[in-house]
């Protein structure tokens, strides 16, 4: 009897009769092929396409195969989520930028009147409190982790679950069987083309995500891009994108009949987060796409702006040139630096940025880059540190090294204070 399921093989063997499932991209399969491959107890053998065995019994566990796994997973998820008695409303949030901020606003709007569980970049949270259980860092959790998170929300008597629905998560089957009542959709701009290969495919996937729900709260720009479903509530374009995120969250509350408190809302950590040091201010933001970066820097006069920015390794290389152009055009002092190189050579993203803006300064060490702009800023200047937001690590090859933009700024501030004493 199968007692548990897991997307990550690290969970195999932690419980008896656990199932490890694997889903490749949709385009890797034809209709005639099995979707996936392996259930086992303690045997770690992986059976790929074309090598699917019959049911076998072995000394160290039972191995069997399941065909049409996507249908199986979808039915299984629907069954598990249908057992949740308190959870009545599922809200998804998609789009290239604004998912985390909208989710954070939605949480603040309803948590005084309705218990809400949120799942996204900031982790699994219940009424604003981060849960201590360990979950993957994905924007959209692996499906069976998401089920585990939902059941945790159920135990805490949450009536609403809201989650970030990413395009990669959708392609990899992480949204299968989730009974969305409403989807909030923001504009789609260039990102993840290393994964989706072209913008048309990326946009099509976002359109399909919105159609997972019968009701959609859609920004005007997203609606013009074809993000719509059976019933659409279009939110007009706002000059302030943060206000747009707030209005989308409020419209979702209204349409879902959720009692909400329309008070002043806090921004999530690492999103347009401002700090003042003497005569100048520092803004920390997660902006890591051309659209997000351009919206951010346009809010400040060029002659007073210092910008520290980088591009992640092993990600969409096509956006680097555009981000370099925006950064150099809108900032008086532009510094390119490291941002999660992953398995790509550390200097490659910086060389790609420099090719588009050769006059910009390159300081590979992100800590030194931030210290440089902090030391050179003058009265009335603004420093923007973009790309990592509230992240607590730097991804370097197979390592996850502790690192925080906030910690670097605090280190500099403490050192400066000691020097003035």
From TrEMBL:
<dbReference type="Pfam" id="PF02875">
    <property type="entry name" value="Mur_ligase_C"/>
</dbReference>
<dbReference type="InterPro" id="IPR036615">
    <property type="entry name" value="Mur_ligase_C_dom_sf"/>
</dbReference>
<dbReference type="GO" id="GO:0008765">
    <property type="term" value="F:UDP-N-acetylmuramoylalanyl-D-glutamate-2,6-diaminopimelate ligase activity"/>
</dbReference>
<dbReference type="InterPro" id="IPR036565">
    <property type="entry name" value="Mur-like_cat_sf"/>
</dbReference>
<dbReference type="InterPro" id="IPR013221">
    <property type="entry name" value="Mur_ligase_cen"/>
</dbReference>
<keyword id="KW-0436">Ligase</keyword>
<feature type="domain" description="Mur ligase central">
    <location>
        <begin position="93"/>
        <end position="218"/>
    </location>
</feature>
<feature type="domain" description="Mur ligase C-terminal">
    <location>
        <begin position="270"/>
        <end position="389"/>
    </location>
</feature>
<dbReference type="InterPro" id="IPR004101">
    <property type="entry name" value="Mur_ligase_C"/>
</dbReference>
<comment type="pathway">
    <text>Cell wall biogenesis; peptidoglycan biosynthesis.</text>
</comment>
<protein>
    <submittedName>
        <fullName>Mur ligase family protein</fullName>
        <ecNumber>6.3.2.13</ecNumber>
    </submittedName>
</protein>
<dbReference type="Pfam" id="PF08245">
    <property type="entry name" value="Mur_ligase_M"/>
</dbReference>
């Amino acid at each position: 009897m199968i007692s548990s399921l897991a997307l990550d093989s690290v969970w195999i063997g932690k419980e008896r009769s656990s199932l490890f499932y694997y889903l490749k991209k949709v385009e890797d399969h034809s209709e005639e092929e099995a979707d996936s491959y392996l259930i086992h107890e303690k045997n770690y053998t992986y059976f790929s396409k074309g090598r699917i065995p019959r049911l076998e019994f072995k000394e160290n566990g039972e191995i069997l195969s399941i065909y049409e796994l996507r249908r199986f997973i979808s039915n299984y998820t629907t069954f598990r989520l249908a057992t949740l008695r308190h959870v009545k409303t599922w809200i998804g949030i998609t789009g290239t930028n604004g998912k985390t901020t909208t989710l954070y606003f939605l949480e603040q709007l309803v948590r005084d009147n309705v218990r809400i569980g949120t799942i996204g970049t900031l982790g699994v949270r219940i009424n604003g409190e981060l849960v201590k259980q360990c979950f993957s860092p994905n924007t959209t959790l692996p499906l069976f982790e998401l089920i585990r998170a939902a059941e945790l929300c159920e135990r805490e008597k949450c009536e609403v679950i809201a989650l970030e629905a990413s395009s990669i998560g959708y392609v990899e089957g992480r949204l299968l069987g989730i009974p969305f009542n409403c989807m909030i959709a923001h504009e789609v701009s260039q990102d993840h083309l290393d994964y989706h290969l072209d913008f048309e495919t990326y946009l099509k996937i976002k359109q399909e995500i919105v159609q997972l729900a019968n009701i959609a709260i859609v920004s005007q720009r997203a609606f013009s891009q074809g993000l719509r479903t059976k019933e659409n509530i279009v939110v007009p374009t706002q000059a302030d994108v943060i206000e747009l995120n707030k209005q989308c969250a409020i419209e979702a509350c209204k349409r879902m009949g959720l009692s909400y408190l329309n008070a002043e809302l806090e921004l999530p950590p690492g999103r347009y987060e401002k700090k003042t040091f003497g005569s100048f201010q520092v803004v920390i933001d997660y902006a890591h796409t051309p659209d997000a970066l351009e919206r951010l820097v346009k809010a400040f006069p060029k002659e007073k702006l210092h910008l520290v920015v980088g591009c992640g390794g092993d990600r969409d290389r096509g956006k680097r040139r555009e981000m370099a152009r925006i950064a150099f055009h809108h900032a008086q002092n532009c510094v390119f630096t490291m941002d999660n190189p992953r398995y790509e050579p550390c200097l490659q993203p910086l060389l790609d940025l420099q090719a588009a803006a050769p006059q910009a300064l390159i300081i590979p060490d992100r800590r030194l880059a931030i210290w440089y702009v902090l030391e050179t800023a003058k009265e009335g200047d603004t420093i923007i540190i973009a790309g990592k937001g509230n992240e607590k690590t730097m991804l370097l090859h197979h390592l996850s090294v502790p690192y925080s933009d906030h910690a670097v700024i605090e280190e500099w501030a403490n050192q400066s204070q000691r020097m003035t004493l």
